Amino acid sequence: MMLWLSNIYRLGLKELRSLRADPVLLFLIAYVFSFAVYAVATGAKLEVINASVAYVDLDHSELSGRIVGAILPPEFDTPQEISLGDVDEVMNNGEYVFVLSFPPRFEADVIAGLQPSLQLNVDATAMVQAGNGAVFLQEIIAAEVTKFVSGDDTSSDLPIDLIVTAQFNPNLQSTWFSSVMQVINNVTILSVLLTGAALIREREHGTIEHLLVMPVTPSEIMLAKIWANGLAIIIAAVLSLWLVVQGILGVPIAGSITLFVTGAVLYLVSVTGLGILLATFTTSMPQFGLLALPVLVIMNLLSGSTTPMESIPDWLQAIMQISPSTHFVAFSQAILYRGAGLETVWFDMVVMAALSAVFFVIALLRFRQTMAA
Amino acid sequence: MIHTSVASLKGVTHRYGKTCALGNVTLEVPAGCMAGLIGPDGVGKSTLLALLAGVRRLQSGDVQVLGGDIRDRGHLRVCNQRIAYMPQGLGRNLYPTLTVTENLDFFGRLFAQSQAERRARIADLLQATGLDPFPDRPAGKLSGGMKQKLSLCSALIHDPDLLILDEPTTGVDPLSRQQFWDLIDRIRAQRPEMSVIVATAYMEEAERFDWLAAMSDGKVIATGAPNEILEQTDQPTLEKAFIAMLPESARRGHRDVVVPPRQAGDGPPAIQAKALTRRFGDFVAVDSVNFEIERGEIFGFLGSNGCGKTTTMKMLTGLLPASEGEALLFGETLDARDMRTRKRVGYMSQSFSLYSELTVRQNLDLHAELYQLPVTERAGRVAEMMQTFELAHVADVRPDALPLGIRQRLQLAVAMIHAPEVLILDEPTSGVDPVARDAFWRHLIALSRNDGVTIFISTHFMNEAQRCDRISLMHAGRVLTVGAPDDITASKNSDSLNDAFVRYLEDAVEDTAGPIQAPASEAPAKAERHDQRRSGGALARMWAFARRETMEILRDPLRLTFAFLGPVILMLTFGYGISFDVTDLPYAVLDQDQSIESRALLEAFSGSRYFEEHDPATSAIDLESRLRDGEIAIAIEIPPDFGKSLLRGDVPEVRAAVDAAMPFRAETTRGYLLGLAQSYMSDQLERTYGQAINTSAVNVETRFRYNQSFKSVVAMVPSVIMLMLVLIPSMMAAMGVVREKETGSIANFRSTPVTRAEFLIGKQLPYVVIAMLSFATLMIVAYGVFGVPVKGSGLALLVGTFLYVFATTGFGVLISTFTKTQVAATFAAAIIAIIPAVNFSGLLVPVSSLSGSGRMIGLSFPSGWYQQISVGTFTKGLGFAELWQNHLALAGFAVFFIAVAILALSKQET
User: Fold this and answer.
1) Which residues, other chains included, contact A110 with Cβ-Cβ below 8 Å and sequence gap of 6+?
2) A96, B848 in Cβ contact below 8 A?
3) ipTM (interface predicted TM)
4) Which of A112, A120, A107 has the alpha carbon at shortest distance from A63?
5) Pairing of strands B5-16, B60-65
6) Fewer Cβ neighbours under 10 Å: the N or C end of chain B?
């Protein structure tokens, strides 16, 4: 047993040395955990922010002016006036997601109580903004019209006052969400690619054969790759959380970092195991790349780190339970945002551990099988 | 008598980093003869040949080849036409999945030969080299000797004026070697004007050359005809003459190898093979092989390449299980799982198989640790090995930077680190120079005679075989004979072991390959050789690369399957899985009022398809902890006396806490909640006033354009096409160039008249076609499975896609010119492409909302532009009139990427 551990340790050191000797890989690790996290977190936001609005004003009244004036950043870009004839063009080329059209005599009809229609065109191909943005615009319009009609600023005569508070992220900043999710996605990508590539490289260079004539077992070879690459990635990921996410982006982290790292270790074992498993199905880097890519994209996009898990059809949710990323995303969201403790996340941890074991055993069987062939 | 020179070097110095490969070399190589370069490995022979062939860029000094300056670009092009270059390594410039004919056909196309010409030449060359029985065998399945013959054929296909061969016979068995040189002689007899420059490690071969240049440590130490060199040094053989010519420092410690007689051992034999058989499918690689090796014996294993030597050795180490029969080690059946056996055996594989990223010392340390040497002994043993195998001066150097001879010593040191009782060495001295080989053998002899180590060694060198206690000759999976070298020589009445071996082989081969003849006719149409050089040639050469790349992809069905299946699977998952429709939000209520009014409010929630009711909360703490656990997404708290104050018209507060860990979902949820409150209000008003009253003074007509039903899939499908056509094609194309760099076939690009543009575009085209086919399958899925039709101009979509895949494959090609390894290329393509494509191209966030760096990244990558075309034609019903700017941008990207790649790729190696 001591021997087994010592061999794993030695071989792992060798892996770390190999990694250190590859400047391209080191650069890519640094890149995905720094610049890529920052760019995605600040550049791509899923909330309605900076949404582009244009309006056609055939009324030019006080009311239309007030409504337009109430459409404000950060949710919306300053609305631009366009002519009626341009509506199709600006929507076709994606310049504006929302176009509001005020009909002639709009204000007069409101005052007369004729309930005029206000047309709101929404580019429904911009799925993320279209739904929520339309709701916001309707709210703004309703509020302004009510104020205009009642002539004062006091709020309406709603029979109840529904106070909606956002927990864990009071200002609904997507940076909080996307930065951490990006770190998780990158952990997935790198773990699978690094370990899989490490195995394929050994096979292509004949060194794996060399290892196998020595008193070293396949399980030792695999575990060494797992711990060494996993260690490199977890250090990079924690640094990224600490420096980029907490430091530069100023995202508060609610829960226990220790617990998070423990879970991350479990996750790494499972995805690095998956990397080796995928590598055993292929014989060359081109094949491995083509196999790993769809697996990675699915693991990242359907894990709940991009779109809400509830929106995924039930059968697909069920399938995604065999992806460790689904559990890790749930685990991370609970700890990092909601400050949850072990009593909340233990189940996801158990599942990750079980998946690690399953991947590892299958990879080990396949490894022995492919080496014999 | 030699008058003119085919090549001359003046003051040529070449460095790799700090290492000096050639130091101020000045040399005249005579024309019209066989000129040989001899010398130890790593003295700069290969560098010199590469400079002459124009495949490596000259650093300093002057090189004239075929009467012109190699630095002159125009002359270099001429040289590419007239020189044939065969790089070092067995079949290194061949394409293993292509057949013999296809390989030659490819080379013929590179020289823009017509189909008839190619056919005639291929037939001639195959017949001349005796490869004609195997025109359809993949090059990778040929034996080493056959590979080299094929490599020679490909070099001769364009009737070169200068043939440059870099160690063509290294690692080839004696019979094939002899045939190879006979072939060269016959070809030279027919084309006497052709000059040949050869580097070789076999001194006995060099004796048949017309002229020799001996090299040592980056310098030429002697030139002249072989007999002149022998006379100068007064030595009987070139091998000895060479050693005599070496400067004192290099010769130090060299003495003739003496093999003391062996003391007969007792006990069971060290190694026994009993009817050992191994099959790969139908192919019998090793056919019931029997032998016994005594303890302490040096047992030589000879045979042509691919005859089953390596397979036999692998079975003896336990790397390969035997199909039949058994292998015994010290009288016990070999058990591959038994770690104790492994500690008794040292193995050195044919190719260098140590970690090139670790230094010499680190490699030794690692193995000492893995063989579990006691901690106290490790450092001592590593030092001892470095001392014994003379590695101390390179202890902190990585093996990549070392000459082959030293690398082989390192391999032996590693194999010996745990002091095994049995050493299994698979061609350990292949490609190693004579001095280093002799030194290597002295180590082996000492191990055998002093330490009683049993050595099982395979080799192609007859002088090495002569030193073995016993040898066995193997051919086509069978052992032809076993015995002491002298007995075997005598059994065939031969003068030398080499002749005896050749005779054994000839007897065995007789029925498989017929006699070898010179080309039946002079290769036809010699006059038309120089005419179609440029215009028609460019297309032909580009097509040659495109055609070959396509064939290689088709021979790799796994890669092809992934390439087509991957995108379809992804589209299905995206189409079904990615959805921004937020429904079934779990919520729980803490109703502290329990009045009719509060229940009426809650009914509004439970009736909505957006919400999914969970058990009511028992306390505020319960509610909060469930929100924290993620069990519910909304926590609704109704205060006590809600009903009463509602009836009083006091406007009671209702609190709803939303889990905002995922901001997008929270935002949507808030919208739903407010909408719900609104409808509840109208309900209340209706109840109060008895009739429906529209509370709003305005009626907002919201039109969801392009996607009336507001379904995610309609928006998703065009975006997925965008994503798939960047990720997969760029990754596949990125492998293209880098793979050639790794396997060595890039030499063909460097040494033939192919231009950079022809090479890169030729390699890009097949991936464009694959991407277009992939696009077709995605269209079928889009329409057939998801029912998303193209509403706009199909032609605009098709043209846009075509430009887009040109750009994305160009991006892949660009990456592959910058990276050195396939691993790095895969990473770079995937990671660099995935971030702009997923985040900044409108897949999730509309481009119009991107800010700052995100917008810039989006604009500087083709995906964002194609997204407009894809979404525009699929959902918005647009055509060229609205989208032409995007087409233009994509065309720009396509040209830009490939142009930068062409500029970045260097025709000569630096």
Assistant:
1) A63, A116, A145, A148, A149, B697, B698
2) yes
3) 0.82
4) A107
5) antiparallel
6) N
Residue B176 phi, psi (nearest 5):
-65, -35
* CA–CA dist B145, B198 (Å, integer): 17
Amino acid residing at A149: V
Estimate the share of chain B in helix, then strand, then coil, as percent rounded to the nearest 5: 50, 15, 30
Among B419, B315, B310, smallest CA distance to B374 is for: B419
Close Cβ partners of B42 (under 8 Å, ≥ 6 residues apart): B402, B403, B404, B405, B406
CA angle (B649, B653, B659) in 5-degree steps = 155
CB B278 within 8 A of CB B322: yes
Which residues of chain A does B670 touch, with a Cβ-Cβ cutoff of 8 Å? 164, 166
CA distance B427 to B459: 5
Contacts of B648 (CB under 8 A, 6+ apart): none
- CB-CB contact of A170 with B660 (8 Å): yes
Contacts of B871 in chain A (CB under 8 A): 94, 125
Query: What's the DSSP call for residue B400?
Result: G
Identify the helix (H) or strand (E) that includes residue B324.
strand B324-329
pLDDT of residue B523: 44
Reported residue count of chain A is 373
Instruction: Tell me if the bond preceding A324 is cis, omega within 30° of 0.
Output: no
The alpha-carbon gap from B773 to the nearest alpha carbon of chain A, in Å, equals 16
DSSP line for A316-339:
HHHHHTTSHHHHHHHHHIIIIIT-
Q: Quick one: DSSP state of residue A246?
A: I
| Helix, strand, or coil (residue B216) | strand
**Domains of chain A (ranges, CATH numbers):** 2-44+173-372 (no CATH), 53-150 (3.40.1710.10)
pTM: 0.82
Question: What does the DSSP assignment read for B766-798?
Answer: HHHHHHHHHHHHHHHHHHHTT-----S-HHHHH
- Compare all CA atoms of chain A with the CA of B674 and give the residue at the minimum distance: A162
Neighbours of B73 (CB within 10 A): 10
Six-digit token string for A199: 């195995």
Let me know: does B240 contact B229? Beta carbons within 8 Å. no
Q: Do A3 and B367 touch (CB under 8 A)?
A: no
Mutation test of the interface with chain B: which of A2, A92, A154, A175, choosing the one with the most B Cβ atoms within 10 A? A92
Whether residues A124 and B666 touch (CB distance < 8 A) is answered with no
Residue entry with tokens 């999710």: A181
Please state whether B373 falls in left (phi above 0), alpha (psi between -120 and 50) or beta: beta
Instruction: Determine the 3-state secondary structure of B390 from DSSP.
Output: coil
**Residues B654 and B637 sit within 8 Å (Cβ to Cβ):** yes
* Residues A179 and A300 sit within 8 Å (Cβ to Cβ): no
Task: Express each pLDDT in B482-508 by its tens digit.
Answer: 899 888 888 888 888 888 888 888 887
Encoded amino acid at B388, one letter: T
Place of tokens 């130490």: B221
pLDDT for B774-806, tens place per residue?
999 999 999 999 888 898 899 999 999 999 999
Residue with tokens 């075929």: B66
Nearest to B651 among A160, A214, A372 (CB): A160
Which residue shows structure tokens 């098709």? B798
Query: Residue B767, Cβ neighbours under 10 Å: how many?
Result: 31
Instruction: Give helix B557-577 / helix B535-554 axis angle, nearest 10°.
Output: 70
What residues does B99 pair with on adjacent strands?
B138
Report yes or no: A215 and B372 within 8 Å, Cβ to Cβ. yes
What is residue A158's predicted lDDT score, i.e. its pLDDT?
Answer: 62
DSSP codes, B501-520:
HHHHHHHHHTTTS------S
